[in-house]
Structure formats: C-alpha cells, structure tokens
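Dear Dr. H.,

I hope your travels went smoothly. While you were away I took the liberty of generating a structure for the chain from your last submission, since the lab meeting agenda had it listed for discussion. I wanted you to have the full record in hand beforehand rather than looking at slides cold. The sequence, exactly as received, is reproduced here:
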Amino acid sequence: MSDPEQGRAEAVYVSAMVGEMMRRVLGDALVDLALAAYGLGWHYEAGLQFERLVLAGTFDRHPGLQVILGHWGEVVLFYLERLAALQRVAKLDRPVADYVRDNLYVTASGMFSLDYFLRCVEIVGLDRVLFSTDYPYQYRPSREARGYLARLPLDDADRVKLAHGNWERLTRRD
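The corresponding predicted structure, in token form, is as follows:
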C-alpha cells in the first residue's frame, strides 16, 4: 500500500472509530436521533444551508430573496463574527453580515429567551424578527408565548411589529 493510500485508509479508520465511539457513548438510537435533529443538529444544518446560499452568491443574483430561519437564526447570528472570516475566501459582493441583515428574518420558534431576543435585535434589527412558537414540535401549555411577548422590553408599536406586523410586511399583507 502506497503512502497516499495509507493516509486515506487511516482517515477512514479514524472516521469509523469516531462514529463507533459516539454510538457507544450515546448507546441509545433515540437519544442520538434527538441530538442530530431538534437537540442541536437541525439548527446547525439549517444555518449552514443559509450560509451556503450566501457563499454561492445567491443573494448577489437575487437581492430581494428573503429567507426565514427559526430558533433565533439557527446559530448563524451567534457565529457571525466567525462567518465573517469566509470573506477572505469567498468572492462575495459584500461582507457576510450584510447578507444576514438584508436577506434574513429570524423567529423565536418557541425559544423564549430575553438574551437571545436582544442579541438578534442588535444584529438584524427588530424589523427582521418574527414572533413564533414551535408548535407542534415543542408545545408549551398555558399562555407562555403570550406572557413572553408581553414581558419583552418593547413599546406597543414595536410589540405589534414583532407579534404580526413584520410578518404582514414581509408577506405584503399590510
């Protein structure tokens, strides 16, 4: 076996070992599925797909295209500083952050965190935040969603924007 072949074989072995190790650590297919889906994997995958649209120049060719990401932007907003480094290798017309601010709307998706809300508003502005729950996936009984909306530090006009006004403007229903 040649040196390059050994390197490929070694890489496959390491990948297989990591996969096997994870199966042994979790030991439960349902837990593994939950982690890969709603626990964390979904959020990274959805955010990654938005970034692929950015890096492919989709928004340069279609500047009016708007994308909605749930769960406070599926980690994109929280990795924006790191994603800015892609500008060094991508042939984009603008910085990555500009695409986030111009082509992305984010929703709460039932993650009722004041800290996340404030961070998202800081990055994309209140006009690009949509209020939502995550029904039926993460159902929360009672009036928790309404209570969260009522407790946010917003005046009445901004609360209306968040509750439904931004959606109506986005879908041209205003």
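Two observations you may find useful: Confidence is low (pLDDT under 50) at residues 5-16. Residues 47 and 79 are 10 Å apart (CA to CA).

With kind regards,
E. W.
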